[in-house]
Amino acid sequence: MLIPDLTQTIVAPASAQGGGAIAVVRLSGPEAFKIASAFLKPSSIFKTPKTRFSYFLRAEENGRLLDNTVVTLYRAPKSYTGDDMAEISCHGSPFIISRLLRLAISNGAREARPGEFTLRAFMNGKLDLAQAEAVNDLIISENESAHRAAITQVAGGISNRIGKLRAGLIALLGELEVRLDDSYEELPELDPGTFRRRAAAAAAGIKNLADSFGRGRYLKHGIRVTIAGAPNSGKSSLLNRITETRRAIVSPRAGTTRDTLEETLTLSGLKVIFTDTAGIDPRTGGPIEREGMRRALKALKTADVILWVQDLSKKSSPADRRVGKAIARGAAPGSDLIKVFNKSDLPAAGRPEDETDGGIIVSCKTGAGISGLKRRLVRDEKKAFSAGSAAVITSARHYSALLNAHSELSSLERLRIRAGTFPFELAAEHLRGALNALADILGETTPEEVLANIFANFCVGK
Ligand SMILES: Nc1nc2c(ncn2[C@@H]2O[C@H](COP(=O)(O)OP(=O)(O)OP(=O)(O)O)[C@@H](O)[C@H]2O)c(=O)[nH]1
Ligand SMILES: [Mg+2]
Fold first, then answer.
1. What distance in Å separates the CA atoms of residue 163 and residue 65, rounded to the nearest whole number?
2. Is 57's pLDDT higher than 80?
3. Whose CA is nearest to atom 17 of ligand 1?
4. pLDDT above 70 covers what percent of the chain?
5. Is residue 255 lining ligand 1, measured as CB closer than 6 Å?
């Protein structure tokens, strides 16, 4: 069974493991109040519990006081899950928590699976799937942008956009379906031009939302920035300068950095993960250097942005050219390349202008140019982020569903929709395909195994 039994009453700690002044244990299901009344006293309050109301109750085990608790009761359907729910706030002792769980289980509850409370909320129609998924994003959000994207989605930002796109497609489909039905012979001809235009507008709306994933995915996972370049160009110095740490060892010896190393920073509310790499110069080194270079090339592949560091006090070297080739071969499609010319405090070697064009000139020694580089790094992402509270796609699952919907509409556009040769059946088929793809985002047509997988990534108690 992929989806757990929704008729059982479940229990789990809802607060983080490892203590805290207060912890919360949640009970949800048809028997929640009956089970709670077995160990929360006085039990008489459970006879006519007020909804969304907190009671000060004694938790008792074998007639002995276990803890003084504050218990909030929610009567179905006015609860997070849509079931009857009790949330027990107790002292944060792992011992008390484990005893409360034991008491609930011995009185008929079962331990909740990860995400099962939110799964119930979804199954009971309190949230659609896009909103439910965003609950987890909200819990794990660790900076302003990730939080904003998640809270917008929880509040229905994506769902509303999908709803509008859907309404447009349903209206179009309706026009076809009445004409497919023989009993409506009196209807006027469908104007092919208008139909094509409306379908194209719907496709453009879907494309527009899908495109937001280009930047939106960074909101959740952060931007991966790989610092690459020839040995001794100042890559490790740049990592240290940007992150204002002394994370990486810096030395005048070429080949100082062998391994890749990471440091995370929040820039303008966005998470940015910097990776310093070994200098790329295939001519040099033994097995350690070669392994370092292999790791550097790998970091190029996973980068969203590559900072190519070059020494402005030297003429372009063969190593620089090799780095250029490695980037051209190894960088992921769609990644951003920024040339960084370092050591501007030293006399410049006079590189030709076309070489330095569009690059950013810095000095890791003095710090000149570093704040401009930081701004440049998050410039585009910040634009997407500050484009109002517009919903942004941050989930690969939603992105691929939108692409599916769009591809159905592209197939529709390729049909020969002309007066006299209007392929009603085929057009309707593509519209239904697009509608199904959109419904998948909201969880209406999502298969059980996909649902189970989504909620398995949640924490227990949510
Ligand atoms: N004058 C000056 N020296 C710099 C600057 N940035 C780095 N250096 C010096 O350049 C040398 C190399 O710096 P690193 O940061 O270790 O260079 P790297 O690219 O990490 O080198 P590898 O790890 O060996 O590939 C060190 O002696 C730094 O002090 C700068 O802006 N100006
Ligand atoms: Mg280094």
1. 52
2. yes
3. 234
4. 97
5. yes
Q: Please check whether residue 453 lies inside any domain of the structure.
A: no
Q: What is the secondary structure of 114-159 as a DSSP string?
A: TTHHHHHHHHTTSS-HHHHHHHHHHHH--SHHHHHHHHHHHTTHHH
Which residue has the least CA distance to atom 2 on ligand 1?
343
Specify the ligand 1 atom closest to the Cα of 249: 16
pLDDT digits (tens, 9 = 90+) for 232-289: 999 999 999 999 999 999 999 998 999 999 999 999 888 999 999 999 987 767 889 8
CA 222 to chain CA centroid, nearest Å: 9
Answer whether 61's CB lies under 8 Å from 99's CB. Answer: yes
Are the C-beta atoms of 123 and 35 separated by less than 8 Å?
A: no
By CB atoms closer than 10 A (0-12, 13-18, 19+), residue 205 is middle
Please give the number of the atom of ligand 1 that sits closest to the Cα of 254: 24
What one-letter code names the amino acid at 393? I
Query: From the CA of 342, which ligand is nearest?
Result: 1
| pLDDT for res 284 | 67
> By residue range, what is the domain housing residue 255?
220-385
Angle between helices 287-301 and 318-330 (to 10 degrees): 50
> Does pLDDT of 380 surpass 80?
no
Nearest to 257, CA basis, from 231, 283, 226, 224:
231
* Nearest residue by C-alpha to atom 30 in ligand 1: 343
In-domain check, residue 449: no
Nearest ligand atom owner, CA of 370: 1
Per the domain annotation, does 400 fall within a domain? yes
Q: Cα(99) to centroid of ligand 2, in Å?
A: 53
CATH number of the domain bearing residue 302: 3.40.50.300
Alpha-carbon distance values, 144 to 148, 209, 265 (Å): 6, 21, 13
| Residues 375, 412 within the same domain | no
Domains: count for the chain: 3
Do 23 and 50 fall within a single domain? Answer: yes
Domain membership flag for residue 456:
no
First-last CA distance in the chain: 20
Percentage of the chain exceeding pLDDT 90: 72
361 Cα: distance to centroid of ligand 2 (angstroms) = 19
- Same domain? For 381 and 397 the reply is no
Q: For residue range 174-203, what is the model confidence (pLDDT) as tens digits? A: 999 888 877 766 777 788 889 999 999 999
Residues 367 and 235 occupy one common structural domain: yes
Mind listing the pLDDT tens digit for each residue in 419-451?
Answer: 777 788 999 999 999 999 999 999 998 889 889
Q: Can you give the pTM of this predicted structure?
A: 0.81
CA distance 409 to 209: 15
